[in-house]
């Protein structure tokens, strides 16, 4: 089974090289190279039932074929099957082809359905002309489509798979028999066979993702993923850490200086952190809490505990704006207690950075706030004991590890606390963060009035603008968030600038400010500062203000073209208001017509303010990759498992992971290697 692919018929050095590009070197690798989808050429679908985006087989009679010029020359062929009509569109065609598609010809096509308001069509379908006297049989099984690479065609992969499947008997089933029978799972070799070459009876179950073979492989894949994270966690726990036993005196002083009491949830999470800090191995804890639940204070509490114990703290934020804001908060909280707060950012002048780095290296700063600049090689700490990463979804695992290396081996590895901005559904958190312990701040500070969310078409802009006028007159503040589909930051900023001048014109008595990603860090900070101190009443911004910005006096947010943003991002944005005691509202403006999913998203937001609930809906609408944002997608890309479809299996997978760790430790690394490509295995510490 671990034989190299070159032992298969027809695999020479060139093909082996191509297979290598897909991380396939052994026969086992090949067998675990699973189809990413299937084409169903086993049945002919009625045209009337077709849905856009699917690849389908259809049959019909040509009604009309013509060559037209619509921007470019093309051939259109209209066909009908009695239930409906469909257009075939060809950009490349010859005279003979045109002739063959003459009226009355029977044709069978396979291709992707595209649907517009006016018609259903296929572009360049594969097709065969049918002859009533010579019936062309349909395929009896689904056609597997594999992740492929240049120089390696689907046909070739399918043929090689056929060869590999002959050696299936040599493959070792790593799931203990009693686990398999408990869940009624087929043997591994049967599952693989069915996935690669489903037989006719299995077609539907395979397409629906309900086939026991798929379930079994998905289970095994998620198990492997789980085990690799657990193993990583064990490795971290085995590292020498720093057992801190602070008494909590400065923390008490901070609490006494606050105008409010910590919520029960904040207190509980701080207690959990305190317990971790006292252990001789490094903490690795994730704190989840909805927007506005007060994560920053929990971070401050953790920092004070570490500082009291005699260590330095590094606090990392994902954006300059947020780093600046944290710097201000932590200075205000820590400096009166006699602790020094430093900062490191990519935008600092060389001299200032040198000074700041030196203060960190000499242990003169108790806490250093920064952005990615904290990762850089020349940055070192005298006695780093705790790393806090705010708004984790922007940082990958590698970055977390790089930061851990800032510790000093002699004194032990620093503790790590990660705070997420966007709540993640429990099932997903269990899967993606199995290398960490996990706390939830499940309570908002008291006295918040819920945010009223309305969904309004762009055409009602004028009403909204007069609403802004009266909100500003009452002394409250307003955000206006501009979005654009274009990736280009330049265009986004331009759009925001235009909106700013439009609003200035229409609201002459209101002080309007603008913040966008192309401004210098200093400009941004100045504007944010002016907004914070209420010199500016209406802040026009691109989505740079998404994360963490805290201005409690802001009570109205307008989000333009809200239909373009994902749920998590909208929830995050909306969390910028509703931070004070005044009743707040959020206006989601959209450009009609709304697509079905966009409507679902906006409705979800209007109906719920609970980030966890929203995240669950987001997961269902969009799938896990997107819930995490692009950065995390790589880490959660499964070959066959689907976190939405398979989430019910997760508790059993946890149990099975425990079982293997306890009773079958020898199978673990084999299982991980089988499923997780080397490049994806989390870096060993
Ligand atoms: P997030 O969890 O989104 O990071 P923040 O830490 O920015 O939230 O806190 C949001 C706001 O709530 C801040 O203005 C903060 O000072 C305030 N806050 C935090 N904890 C409490 C509390 N226990 N009672 C009242 N207000 C609080
Ligand atoms: Mg925050």
TrEMBL record:
MF GO annotations: 3'-5' DNA helicase activity; ATP binding; ATP hydrolysis activity; DNA binding
Domain Helicase C-terminal: 474-620
CDD domains in the cross-refs: DEXHc_RecG, RecG_wedge_OBF
Helicase ATP-binding domain ranges (all copies): 276-441
EC number(s) from the headed UniProt entry: 5.6.2.4
GO biological process, alphabetically ordered: DNA recombination; DNA repair
The entry's keywords: ATP-binding, DNA damage, DNA recombination, DNA repair, DNA-binding, Helicase, Hydrolase, Isomerase, Nucleotide-binding
Similarity annotation: Belongs to the helicase family. RecG subfamily.
NCBIfam families: PRK10917.1-1 (NF008163), PRK10917.1-3 (NF008165), PRK10917.1-4 (NF008166), PRK10917.2-2 (NF008168), recG (TIGR00643)
Protein name: ATP-dependent DNA helicase RecG
């Amino acid at each position: 089974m671990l034989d190299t692919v070159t032992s298969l018929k027809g695999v020479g050095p060139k093909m082996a090289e191509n297979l290598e590009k897909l991380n396939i070197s052994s026969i086992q690798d090949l067998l675990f190279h699973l189809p990413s989808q299937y084409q169903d050429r086993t049945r002919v679908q009625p045209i009337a039932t077709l849905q856009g985006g699917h690849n389908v087989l259809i049959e019909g009679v040509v009604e009309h074929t013509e060559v037209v010029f619509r921007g470019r020359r093309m051939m259109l062929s209209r066909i009908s099957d009695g239930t409906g009509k469909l257009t075939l569109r060809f950009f490349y065609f010859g005279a003979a082809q045109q002739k063959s598609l003459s009226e009355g010809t029977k044709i069978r096509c396979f291709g992707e359905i595209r649907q517009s308001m006016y018609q259903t069509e296929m572009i360049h379908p594969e097709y065969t002309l049918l002859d009533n006297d010579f019936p062309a049989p349909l395929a009896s099984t689904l056609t597997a489509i594999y992740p492929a690479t240049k120089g390696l065609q689907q046909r070739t992969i399918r043929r090689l798979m056929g060869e590999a499947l002959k050696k299936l008997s040599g493959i070792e089933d790593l799931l203990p028999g009693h686990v398999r029978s408990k869940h009624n799972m087929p043997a591994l070799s049967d599952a693989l066979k069915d996935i690669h070459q489903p037989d006719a009876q299995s077609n539907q179950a395979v397409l629906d993702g309900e086939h026991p073979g798929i379930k079994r492989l998905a289970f095994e894949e998620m198990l492997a993923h789980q085990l690799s994270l657990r193993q990583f966690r064990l490795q971290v726990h085995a590292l020498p850490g720093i057992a801190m036993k602070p008494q909590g005196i400065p923390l008490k002083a901070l609490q006494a200086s606050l105008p409010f009491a910590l919520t029960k949830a904040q207190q509980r999470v701080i207690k959990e952190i305190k317990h971790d800090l006292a252990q001789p191995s490094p903490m690795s804890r994730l704190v989840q809490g909805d927007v506005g639940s007060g994560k920053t204070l929990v971070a401050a509490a953790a920092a004070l505990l570490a500082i009291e114990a005699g260590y330095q703290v590094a606090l990392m934020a994902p954006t300059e704006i947020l780093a600046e804001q944290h710097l201000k908060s932590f200075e205000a909280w820590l400096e009166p207690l006699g602790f020094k707060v430093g900062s490191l950012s990519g935008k600092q002048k060389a001299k200032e950075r040198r000074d700041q780095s030196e203060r960190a290296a000499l242990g003169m700063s108790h806490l250093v706030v920064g952005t990615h600049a904290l990762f850089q090689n020349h940055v070192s700490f005298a006695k780093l004991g705790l790393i806090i990463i705010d708004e984790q979804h922007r940082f990958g695992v590698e970055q977390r590890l790089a930061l851990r290396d800032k510790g000093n081996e002699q004194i032990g590895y620093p503790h790590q606390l990660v705070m997420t901005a966007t709540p993640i559904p429990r099932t997903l958190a269990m899967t993606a963060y199995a290398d960490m312990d996990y706390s939830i701040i499940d309570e908002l500070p008291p006295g918040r009035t819920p945010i009223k969310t309305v969904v309004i078409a762009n055409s009602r802009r004028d009403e909204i603008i007069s609403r802004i006028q009266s909100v500003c007159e009452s002394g409250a503040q307003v955000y206006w968030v501009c979005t654009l589909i274009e990736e280009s930051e330049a265009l986004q900023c331009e759009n925001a600038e235009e909106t700013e001048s439009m609003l200035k014109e229409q609201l002459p008595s209101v002080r309007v400010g603008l913040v966008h990603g192309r401004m210098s860090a200093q400009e941004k900070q100045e504007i944010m500062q002016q907004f914070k101190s209420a010199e500016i009443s209406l802040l026009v911004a691109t989505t740079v203000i998404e994360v963490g910005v805290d201005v409690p006096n802001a009570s109205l947010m307008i989000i333009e073209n809200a239909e373009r943003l994902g749920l998590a991002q909208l929830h995050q944005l909306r969390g910028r208001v509703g931070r004070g005691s005044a009743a707040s509202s959020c206006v989601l403006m959209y450009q009609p017509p709304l697509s079905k999913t966009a409507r679902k998203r906006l409705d979800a937001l209007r109906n719920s303010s609970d980030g966890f609930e929203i995240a669950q809906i987001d997961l269902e609408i969009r799938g896990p990759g997107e819930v995490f944002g692009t950065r995390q997608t790589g880490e959660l890309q499964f070959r066959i498992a689907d976190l939405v479809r398979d989430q019910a299996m997760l508790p059993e997978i946890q149990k099975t992971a425990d079982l293997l760790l306890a009773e079958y430790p020898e199978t673990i690394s084999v299982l991980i290697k089988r499923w997780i490509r080397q490049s994806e295995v989390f870096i060993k510490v």
